[in-house]
Amino acid sequence: QCFMLSNMFDPITEREPNWDQEIRDDVIDECNKHGGVLHIYVDKASPQGNVYVKCPNISTAVAAVNALHGRWFAGKVITAAYVPVTNYHNLFPDSDKPTGQVRR
Q: What is the SS3 assignment for 79?
């Protein structure tokens, strides 16, 4: 149900004022093709360019991971890795009780 995308950005080279919002929106758009997003976090300080995502269910997460893993984004190959729900909730306690799907 939860996963982490790596290689989504390089915090050292990002210069646009709202670059993290643009990445967030791009990931939401892609995940909406597969069932949506309940929680998303762009880790702006991450040297690996990590974005954390929680989907409404496992099948949505699997479809999103399958679509994103190995894909090129901003000149880099994205890697996607599943994150156990309990670990995800420990990282983002507010994601345990989502208020609905995240919109752009």
A: strand
